[in-house]
Structure formats: C-alpha cells, structure tokens
Amino acid sequence: MGDMNSGGPIATSRSFSVSLILLVVSLGANVFFRLAPAYFPQYKKDARSIVEQRIAAASIQTLTQKYPGYGARVRHALIRDIIKKESRSKEFHARILEEYAALCEPYQDKDHQTYLLELDPYQWMRNTENVLRYGFPGTKREGALMYDTYMLAPRGIEIGHIHFLFYCSAALYRVFSFFFPATGLAHFLFYLPLFYTVVFLTSLYFFSKQYFSSFGAFCTTLYVGCNSLFINRSCAGWYDYDALSMTMPLIVLGCVGASIRYGRSSGRYWAWLACAAFFQGMYTFTWIGWWFLLFIIIAAFLFIILNNYVLYERRRAHALALHYVGTLTGFLIGSALFCLLISKVNMLAEFMTLLRENLTLGKSASVSLWPDMRYTISELQGSSFLGAVKNLYGGVIMSIVLIANIWIYTKERRGKHACMVYVMFFWAVFMIYASMKGARFIIYLVIPFGFFFGWAVSEALRILRERARLHFRAASAGFAVTGIIIIFMLTRFLQTGFISSRNDYPLMNDEWYEAMQQVKMQTPPGSVINSWWDYGNFFKAVADRPVIFDGQSQLGSLGYWMGRVLLARDENEALRILRMLNNASDTTFGALQAHIHDQFKTERMLEEILTCDRLHGDEVLRTHGIPQVARQRILDDLHRVPGPAYFVVDKSMAGKMANISFIGNWIFPKVFITKNSALPEKELFARLEDIYKLSPAQAKAYYEEVLVSGLHADGDEILSKRFSFYTTPITGT
C-alpha cells in the first residue's frame, strides 16, 4: 500500500509521457524544416511581393495622371492603401498563388513534384531501381561480382559492397507501393530521407537517454538535427547515405556500451557484443566511411586500458584490462566475421586500404601518380576554423558547447560511463581532424558535441535541483541564468534550422530535364556521353545513357584525361584521347604498364604516342620492346573509331575551368619528385632526365619548387596550374 501511495507508477507514467512529448516535438520540428524543398515556402513571400510590386507599378501611373500635383510621399501612402484594399480580395490571393506556382514550376515535374536535389541522389535512385528490376544494384552480374555498365563506359565498373541503402529503400518501396501503387519510385525516394532522419534522431534520443535525462536528450537531438549542413544533406529530395551513416555508429556504440556493463560470464554480455559486431558488419554494408568507427573504438579502448594503470593499483588495472581486451577482441573478431558474411570483404584489409586512401584527403596528389579529384570538390576541401564555427551555430553557441564538452569530459571521464566518454572524445577529435580535411564531415562532428552538450544541460539542472533543496534562493538564480542560456540556444538551433531549410533547391530543373530528354530521343540507345564528371548522374538516370565517368567513378586517371581533352590545343590529340576513353575507358594505361613496370614511364610513353599517328606510335612502342599483340591492342584503343559517342558541354563549364585545368595541367615530373623524395638528389635528377628528358637545371628548378611548396599552406597548388576563362559562353553551330 505504501508503494502505491508513493506515486511510483504515476511518476513513471508521467516521466514516459514527458519523454515522448519531447521526442515528438524534436522530430516534428526537424521534419517540418526538412519538408521545405517539397513546396518552397520561401516563394510564397516572394510571390506576394511580386503581386504587390505590380499593383504599385500600375497605381503609380494612374495616380500620376489623376493627381499630378501630389508629392511622392503622398502617392506612396495612397499606393499602400490601394495594396491593403486589394489584399482583401480573392483575386489578389489568386494572383499570389499563380505567381507562387510560376516560381516553383522550374524545379518541379509535370505532376508538381520537386526534382531530387543534388547529383548523387540520381545515381542512388538508379541503384535502387536496379534492385527492384534485377534484384541487385548493378546492371550486370558475373558470378558473385556486380557491375554497372552505365559507369566507366564502355567497360563498366564493379559496384563494390555499399548496398544497404538500395536494398532497404527498395524493400520499403515494395511495402509502400502495395498500399499506394500509383506512387512512382522518384516520388517515394524524394520523401524517404525524412524517414531515415526520423530513425536517426530517434536512435540518438534514446541513445542519449541511456546516459542522461530526457530533456538533455531533447537538447542533443535539436542541436544535431538543426545543424545547417545536416539539414541540407537530409532534407526531402536529398536521397543519400548521410542519415543511415550516422545511425549505425549509435547502434554499434549502444550495444558496446550495454555489453561493458556485464561481466563476461553473463549471457547478456555476449548477446550485446554479438549485436555490436553484427551492426558493425552492417555498417561496412552502409557507408564507405565505416572504418572511422573501428578506429575510434580501438583508440578509446587502448587509452582506457593504459589510463587504468595510471588510476588504479596494478591488480585492479589487470582485471579491467582483461575485461576491455576481451571485449575489444571479441568485437573485432565478430565484426570481421559479419563483415565477411554481409559485405563479402576482408575487414582488416579494407580498413588499411581506406585508411591509406583517406590520408590524401585534402591534398592534390593521390596515392597513385594521378591528381586526386576530391581536391577540387568544395565539400571535400578543408574547412577553416571560422568556417567550422559558422557551421556550428556561430561563435557564441560554439563557445558554450565547447565549455559544456570540456566540463562533462573532465567530470565524467572517471565515472561509471567513462568508456562512452572516451569513445565520444575520440570521435570528436577524429572528426575535428576530418573536418579540417573536408567540410562535409562537420555533420559527424555534431554528434559528440551534441551528446556532451545534452549531458551538460542534464547535469547542470540536476545539480541545481539538488542545491534548491538546501538553498532555494541561491539555486533559483542559477535556474534563471541556466534557463536563459538554454532558451537562447534552443531558439538559435530552431532559427538556424528554419533558415537553412529555405536554401535548398534542386540542381535539376525543367531546362536540364528537357535537355536530358533531347539526349535520350536524339542519340541511339547505348550511346556513350562524354562530359565532365559532375552531370554524369543526370545522363545515366534521366537520359538513360552510359557515361565516361561521373561522381562515383571520378577517382583515377579519367579526370586527368578529360581535363586534357578540354584544354587540348591539338584537335587530333584530343580525338585520340577521346577514342582511347570510348574504346577502353581507363584500361589502356594498365595494358601498357604491364610491359613497362613503371607507372611514370608508362604515363610518359602514353603521352608520347597520343601526339603522333598510328605508324609513328607503333614505332615508339616497338622501340621500347612492347610485343606486337600488345602494340596492336594499345594502338586500336587510340585510333579505332568507337561506337556512338557524344561530347557534351554546358554553360557552367567556363566557371569550372579553374578546377578542370588544375586536373588537366598535372605536372608529372613534380609528382615524381614528391613520390620519390627519399632518393638521393643525384639519383633523383638522373631519373627525371631518363623519364622526362629534363636538363639538370630544369630538374633542379622543379626540385626546389617542390621543396619550397612544403613551407606554404597552398603547397598542393605547385603540382599543377590553373587557367581561368572570363568570356561568356559562345553558342556552337
């Protein structure tokens, strides 16, 4: 009877209700913001302004004729009265709706559905459509390997193992279309990011509640969800990996955190550990950046083990070390097994490969001799400190959040949740570094920042409640100050979300859509489209034509060769490059390197035979000992007329030429120096003379330029040169 009177069940019910309300409010605000691209609410204000301006223009003429003696101030007052009177009429509002529809129309199809945003969603839509059509994301299958023949045409490309988005979306579409069969795939995928965002934010909310209060979790969810970069990459129309790539780590860490609470003799320990390993395996199936989570878990666990030897006496530290080493070992072995079962890849080998490749992020040189195309992509360029602050709600909010993060880290790093504190700390450190390399990774930085911020809010309110029992007046002042700060911050989060959501417009519009339809109707099926990489996804998804390369296949040599085509002064040389790409994609270099066994010599020889006719090219290859069969194949690549192919440019190309020219003007002797800097100077100069026929003076000049470039922030620019074009586009004939 005493327990019933204590109100325990009622308090629990009330707590659950409050928690649910906070979650619904947070989700509601985030979904509302992300719906903006579906109907462009910002255009309603613009439409009203247009109608009012037209009424004003017509009224000025009438008033000037009727009352020529009135001054400008009087006329403006009369015009305001006329507009106010007109605004009460149905015709006025009908004209606003008409203007609003006209403003939205270029970004929407014939059914008034907004086009998918950005470029990548069109490729992911193709992959999802292929799952529905063929049962796998590609267009061709050879044994266990899947290929997309619309990419890297004409040979096609193996599509790898990052497929969860496509299979999950296809399954959801099948369920949805069973009840709503008239809904097209593009329409469904336009709104699907909202579902994935709700899943992520719900996961974040309940993950946070394991460590602090519902209100703290609410603050975390708003901080993360309203971030401008995250809204841009998860709003309606942005069908991409982002929300899923942020959900999986929370599930993995939630399972790891749960397993840590139990001893190894407990069945729950092994169950949670198995779940963590399974979802880590799923993460390798979800996003190419999966390896970062493995990295921070290993780093955090090793740090905890070493730190325990500093904090505790040796016997206890040994016991804790065994627990953490066992947990980490079990997690890694289980993850490797699930990675092999789900993604069919060797987790350790893949981890090392991705780590090595991403070390060059933010640099112009890749791990190979070719330029790294990511260097010219704005979202993968490093963020400055001020840029990062701006994307994290500005200096005031950033300062408060950093103080909150430091407070919780120092307060809780030796508490019962020390494991998660260290994991989140290493997550933050890793993503701070990644954000300096590529601005888009800021969206992954907001998770640990938001987690610690929500924890700090929860802890501050808990401390104030405890003090209120003893010193109510003193605590009330603390409540007031804390409340003002929290209200200010939550208001800023919501304001940022509101403003950011009204800045998203699709790159696809009626003009582009009509152009793609013209390409589809006026080119034979299977024709290969040659263009710069960025609009490749439009050609594949809308025009139904394969492409030389695109946003998903831009790494490697193709960007360089296409840049060379666009910069070429010799039309015949450009034609040979295009024939090479359309006959063999990027395989000609490999066919030649198989006999040269030196990538720099291979590139130099390929450059040489591209400048001469077939007969002279055969002589060059024969002189270097290339067998007759290989010579025939290589020269066929350069000179044989390929199947139907079309070269496409658009009016935005002039503005992109600075980046295109940087890729196409790649200076290989300088790259050779950077890759072989450990060689003695004399040997380095000798090899430069052998491969590139550089004189000692030329070699020394290049060498000194490369050495000096290491002292400058823009040192990567030394490996190439940029051209800028200032004329307006010239209409072709």
Description:
The protein is mainly alpha-helical. Among the domains are: 61 residues, no CATH class; 118 residues; 153 residues, 3-Layer(aba) Sandwich (Pyruvate Kinase, Chain: A, domain 1), CATH 3.40.1380; 67 residues. The protein contains 33 helices and 5 strands. Strands 1-2-3 form a 3-stranded antiparallel β-sheet, with no helix packed on it. Strands 4-5 form a two-stranded parallel sheet.
Tags for this model:
single chain, 733 residues, mainly alpha, Pyruvate Kinase, Chain: A, domain 1, three-stranded antiparallel beta sheet, two-stranded parallel ribbon, 33 helices, 68% helix, globular, disordered N terminus
What's the SSE blueprint?
Layout: H1 2-5, H2 8-34, H3 36-39, H4 42-66, H5 72-86, H6 90-104, H7 120-134, E1 140-142, E2 145-148, E3 157-158, H8 164-179, H9 185-209, H10 214-225, H11 228-232, H12 242-260, H13 267-284, H14 291-311, H15 314-343, H16 347-358, H17 385-390, H18 395-412, H19 418-437, H20 442-470, H21 472-501, H22 510-522, E4 528-530, H23 536-541, H24 558-567, H25 571-584, H26 587-596, H27 599-610, H28 614-623, H29 628-639, E5 645-647, H30 653-664, H31 668-675, H32 681-692, H33 696-709
